[in-house]
Amino acid sequence: MAGQLHLEFYFTLKTYVFQCYILIIFPSSIPLSLIESPIFP
What we know:
Elements lengths: L1 H24 L6 H5 L5
């Protein structure tokens, strides 16, 4: 259970960091709908 929770937290954190990275590097070339949708499968 703890392992699953840790994996879920890491997945969420990685997605959040990736979204912030995109917003900083490509602020005008990517629509917000793409940012708000799940990026990682």
